[in-house]
Amino acid sequence: MPTLGSLYLSLLLQVQAGGSATAESSSGSLIANLISRSTVPAKVVIVLLVLFSVISWGVILYKIWTLQRARRQTAQFLDVFRRSNKFSEVQAVCRSLSDSPLVGLFQSGYAELTAQLRQGMPDIGNGPNPKPTAPRPTLKSLAAVDRALLRASVVEVTKLEHWIPFLATTASVTPFIGLFGTVWGILVAFEQIGVTGSTSIASVGPGISEALVTTALGLFAAIPAVIFYNHLTNRVKQFASEMDDFSMEFLNISERNFT
Question: HEC string of 180-245?
Answer without folding.
Answer: HHHHHHHHHHHHHHHHHCCCCHHHHHHHHHHHHHHHHHHHHHHHHHHHHHHHHHHHHHHHHHHHHH
